[in-house]
Design brief:
Layout: E1 9-15, E2 18-25, E3 32-36, H1 48-56, E4 60-64, H2 83-92, H3 102-115, E5 121-126, H4 128-139, E6 144-150, H5 164-171, H6 178-192, H7 201-214, H8 218-231, H9 235-238, E7 245-250, H10 258-267, E8 272-276, H11 288-299
Parallel strand pairs: 3-4, 3-5, 5-6, 6-7, 7-8
Antiparallel strand pairs: 1-2, 2-4
Helix pairs in contact: 2-8, 3-4, 6-7
Amino acid sequence: MQKNHLPYESGVIPVRGIELAYHAFGRRTDPAFLLIMGLGTQMVAWDDAFCLQLMRRGYYVIRFDNRDVGLSGRPAHADVPDLAALEQSLTTGHLERPPYTLDDMAADGIGLLQGVGIQRAHVAGVSMGGMIAQVMASDFPQHVRSLTSIMSSTGRPDLPPPTPEALAVLLTPFPTDREGYIESFVRTYRIISGPVYPINETRVRRWAQMHFENGLNPDGITRQLAAILYAGDRTEALRRITAPTLVLHGDADPLFSVACAHATADAIPGARLEIIPGMGHVIPDALWDFVVDQMVAHAC
């Protein structure tokens, strides 16, 4: 890893034919905490200040860009699934195998850990990142010390769908010019954050600017969405998880209703469920202390 003037070290690890970009906060001798971000979202949305809070509690904190997003690599010669077919699959449940799956993305996470010399880590993910973390825990139990699944789901088809406004966020292509992208990014965060906690617009605009500067990849978001939909119902796989599991979820989440949290906690043996009043599909600044406290108390 190369030292820089930022509060983290950065690097790129080749994993299964894909280069994964990551940042690491703290001392490698401390227990590792791997943070996995959601659909089309870059690692910088795990804000520096959030990561530093976790680091100061005694952890070596690793965040990374999933394949097909940000500074990480794109799969070579990968097709782009048809967005209309993906939308139709929400009702039919039928989808052809995409260029890669959540299983592939979970194996990426394990490969990244091994690439930086970590054999076992606490793993936390939000939204799609929560799904990836769940697969890591079910398929690679020897590498996952604990699991924190945040604002995620099991993929069970009978669970309540996203609100129409939130679903439109998933299925509407974003502008690719700088100003249009930033405004779209901010508008998306306003929609998914819920009515109780207003977004920190300065911070969200900074994330948007970093996303734009690191590189946009609309095709990658479509491929990631296809991986989510193709995974289907993972309830039986979740029953195999043996790692201590914490499920965090807001009761104002417009993308994954609180029923998704109950389904996740019910599926994972011994999981502890914490419902956060007023939280939507974003961890607001005002709740960072609480969420870090929950993660640390669970990982101890």
